[in-house]
Design goal:
The chain is mainly alpha-helical. Helices cover 73% and strands 0% of the residues.
Amino acid sequence: MMATTDTLSYNWLTTNYSREIIMNNSDLAQILIRAVEEADSSDRLLDAVQELAAAGIEEAVPCLIAALGYNNPGAAVAAVDGLIAIGEAAVQPLLQLIDGYNYGARAWAIRALAGIGDVRALDTLLEAAKTDFSLSVRRAAARGLGTLRWQQVPPEKLESIQTQVLEALLLISQDPEWVVRYAAVTSLETLAIAIAATLPDQASRITNQLQQMLDTDVDLGVRTRVKFAQEKIQPQQPQQHQEVFAPKIKLQDTEVPHRGGSRR
């Protein structure tokens, strides 16, 4: 009976403690949101958004999204950081509240989605990277295509979606703006590593595109980033080649006994 009483007391305490935390978070969110809404200078707005972002409260998401369009770059950076820290809970509001007219706010929203890496943003990122008139939006979207969390994709859809992203990045890597091409290179690098196991036959398309960019791109920064990507990707190739094409050999015929302990 004593144990049961203790258990009930513990459950009551933890439940009420959790309610108190929720209430405190809600109250804190309202205070911090009010500070953002009542800020009467750029400096106060920046401070208020930074404090709201640092709180990491889901209730703050709409206000942080609104801050992306305040024409205050410092506040926008803080809001993006806050939205990324909140993570998946911010994805759907971001997708619903992306500003279709303020290209600056749209670029910040895309940057937040890219930082979160949730695959629910895939269609938005693809469309923005390929068609948006703003180079800052296209750049942010191109970078976001390289940060997607592939583990969120159902296995039966993984190859199809990765192929879709590959096709988009190959197109985006020909964008007239060098900053967009630069972002595409970073995403081609991460995609090349991701598809080494799922789409090994497609890896050559990435390496060929990077080599073409290295040979022909007019911008030195892009060519330098391509060279770095090639160095990161290259170690993947021998292992990939061995796994895909090397004949299978019986382990017991070739393995040399390991001295000094078990093999790891």
